[in-house]
Amino acid sequence: MASVYCKETGIYYISVMFQNKRITRSLRTRSYKVARKLTSHVEKQILAELVGVKKADKKTLSFPQLVRRYLEYPDHAWADSTRERNRCLLKNYLSDGLPENPTTKAMTIRVVNSCNNWGIKYELIDKRVRLEGGSRWVPRNRILNNNELKLLFNEVKNEDFNAFVRFAFYTGARSGEIRHIQADNIKDKYLLVTGKTGERIVKISTQAGIVLKNQNPLWAYTKNYVSHKFKKEVRRLGIKDARFHDLRRTFGYNLIKQGISIYKVSKLLGHKSVTTTERHYAPLLTTEIEDFVL
Hints:
Elements: E1 2-6, E2 12-18, E3 21-26, H1 32-50, H2 63-72, H3 80-96, H4 102-121, H5 146-155, H6 159-171, H7 175-178, E4 186-187, E5 190-195, E6 198-203, H8 206-213, H9 223-237, H10 246-257, H11 262-269, H12 274-286
Antiparallel strand pairs: 1-2, 2-3, 4-5, 5-6
Helix pairs in contact: 2-4, 3-4, 5-6, 6-8, 6-10, 10-11, 11-12
C-alpha cells in the first residue's frame, strides 16, 4: 500500500510497504497535482524493486522522447518566455545540431545539459551526457548612438510600432514585458508586468507616459512580429547590426553615463542583483574611463 505525504521542505514523498518491507522515495515536486500523477508510476517501480525486479529492466528514453517529456513537465516553474526559448533551442538542436553563433550555441548546450540532468534525476535515462562549452558565450555590447535613435524615432513609418519602439527605449523594458499591456496593469507612474524574472514594476518616465497616453489601442504583438518588424526597419534605415533588445541596453548605458547610480539602473532594468547589471555594463563603461597617468 502506498501513501503520499509532504515534508516541511514542501517536497512530496511516497512510501510503499510490501511484506514488511518499506521504501520511501522523494517525488521531487512541491505540487500536489504533480505528485498524484507520479504516484502510480513510482509505486509500480518501488514494488518491482521490493519483489526483486531490477531497475535495469527499465527502457531508457531516446533524446527526442526525453526532450518531449522535459518540455511537457509542468513543475519546472519556468516563465512563459523561458519555456518558449527552451522549446525553440531544443527543437533547432534536434533538427540542425548546434548553431554556429557562439552565444546561441552556449545557450543551446546549457539547455541540452539541463534536459539530460533532468532525465537522470527522474530515472528516464541511465547515462548522463554532458556537452562542453556552455559557458563560452560572447556578450553582446551593441549600443545605439543618438543618430540611430533619431532615425528610429522619426523614420519608423508604422505609427503603432514607432510608439512601441519609443516606449521600449524610454522604459528599458524587455519586449516580452510590454508586448501585451493590459489597461489594468497601468498604474500612476508605473506599470506592472510579468516577464523573464517574474512580476516586476516598470517605471513610467515622463517621456514614456506621453507615449502610453497617446496609444490606443494598446499593443498586442507577438515575439516574432517585434523581432522581424524591427529587423526590417533597421535594414531599411541602414542601421547595421541592430536588434530590438539593443534599445534596453542603450537605455541602461545612457542612464549610467548621465550619473544615475548603477543600483538605481539595476532596479529600473529589473535585474535580480546589481552584480547582473555590473556584468552587463562593465565592458561598455571601461571605454568611458578618463585618461590617467601612472
